[in-house]
From TrEMBL:
The keyword DNA-binding applies. This is Helix-turn-helix transcriptional regulator. One of its GO terms (molecular function) is DNA binding. It comes from Lawsonibacter hominis. It comes from the Bacteria. It holds the Pfam family HTH_3. Keywords: DNA-binding. PROSITE patterns: HTH_CROC1 (PS50943). Residues 7-59 form the HTH cro/C1-type domain.
């Protein structure tokens, strides 16, 4: 699964709109739409903020609380 699909699916799974996600990561809603469509690539900083909000591991591993 590519990053844009993962971001869109996790966002929808958590019930977060593009506008809400944009506000949480301090970018515009159109920029989130462009990331999800693949028209734009986020900077590492923005990608890290998105991953933090959506609880996505940057390394593709699920976190397991022990």
């Amino acid at each position: 699964m590519d990053y844009k699909t993962l971001i869109r699916e996790k966002r929808k799974e958590k019930g977060i709109s593009q506008g809400k996600l944009a506000g949480l990561v301090q970018v515009s809603q159109p920029f989130i739409a462009e990331i999800e469509s693949g028209r734009k690539k986020p900077s590492l900083d923005v990608l890290m903020r998105i991953c933090t909000v959506l609880e996505i591991s940057l390394f593709g591993e699920e976190r397991k609380d022990e």
